[in-house]
Write a structure and sequence with these properties.
Strand 3 and strand 4 form a beta hairpin. The relative contact order is 0.11. This protein has a domain of 175 residues: Rod shape-determining protein MreC, domain 1 (Thrombin, subunit H, Beta Barrel), CATH 2.40.10.340. 41% of the residues lie in helices and 27% in strands.
């Protein structure tokens, strides 16, 4: 074949190849043996074709696995993020429901208050366990004054003792340094409610052993001292202990305010002159 094409021109090569192609095409169309030979050769080459195609198919499957794994990882991360967001929303909903309930209770409590009040929010708590103090988001720029009464939906919480321009510190009635003039709502018996440093307990001071006071009696502010308006709920009598050998009974009372739970509070906007007048009226009572 090499000797045939050696030294020949390009045109002669083309003619010879063209004639050879025509002969093969004619043989393929007219001779069944050629077709059988092609089929046999194709059968012999099938394993080789399959073997040659194996790397391509394996690469495709591995690529699909890698892509599927990446998609799964991505989808898993997205689902985790959505789950966290939904859990956060559920927590916010629970918090909003609780806050709504507290605001409703404050609204009910506000109806019982005869003076103007301002809704404030608790923004801080004194970390010292021996000092029962909280911080609210109102200060001198908002008209807050020293001695101003602070309430929640249940009753008296405390009074403002320090303030800055935009925040104030409130001393709770359970603080060991706090004393509050009170009276028994049922019969007007007066006493002093002393803080004991416990968030759920106060004590009445110097209660005569013969005093008419019973478990369940409501204790309210008496208006004496010029700090707290008269008639606001303070506590309920939880225990009365009388000792025949002592002149005074020991009376424990439980605050009606939720001192360790309330977040929204009420500032009683009451002028100092009115407080002094209430104190004078209370002192003049028989």
């Amino acid at each position: 074949m090499k000797s045939l094409f050696r030294g020949s021109s390009q045109s002669r090569r083309f003619v010879i190849l063209f004639l050879l192609a025509l002969i093969l095409i004619s043989a393929n169309l007219l001779s069944s043996r050629v077709q059988e030979g092609r089929a046999f050769i194709s059968l012999l080459l099938t394993p080789l074709q399959w073997f040659v195609d194996v790397p391509s198919r394996v690469a495709g499957e591995v690529s699909d696995l890698v892509v599927d794994r990446r998609l799964l990882i991505k989808e898993n991360a997205m689902l985790k993020t959505e789950n966290l967001e939904l859990a956060h929303q559920v927590q916010q909903i629970d918090s909003l429901v609780q806050e709504n309930s507290q605001l409703r209770q404050l609204l009910q409590g506000r109806k019982r208050v005869l003076h103007d009040v301002e809704l404030v929010e608790l923004i801080g708590v004194n970390p010292d366990p021996f000092q029962h103090q909280v911080i609210i988001n109102r200060g001198s720029e908002n008209g807050v004054f020293i001695g101003q009464s602070v309430l929640d939906a249940g009753g008296v919480m405390g009074q403002v003792t320090e303030m800055s321009h935009y925040t104030s510190r409130v001393l709770l009635i359970t603080d060991a340094r706090h004393a509050l003039p009170v009276e028994v709502n049922r019969n007007g018996f007066r006493s002093i409610a002393l803080g004991k440093g416990q968030v759920d307990e106060l004590e009445l001071e110097h209660v005569p052993d013969t005093a008419d006071i019973q478990v369940g009696d409501l204790i309210v502010t008496s208006g004496l001292g010029g700090r707290f308006p008269r008639g606001y709920p303070v506590a309920k009598v939880s225990e009365v202990m009388r000792d025949p050998g002592r002149p005074f009974a020991r009376v424990r009372i439980k605050p009606t305010a939720l001192l360790d739970k309330s977040r929204h509070l009420l500032l009683v906007k009451m002028p100092q002159q009115v407080l002094q007048l209430n104190a004078e009226v209370a002192e003049a009572r028989p």
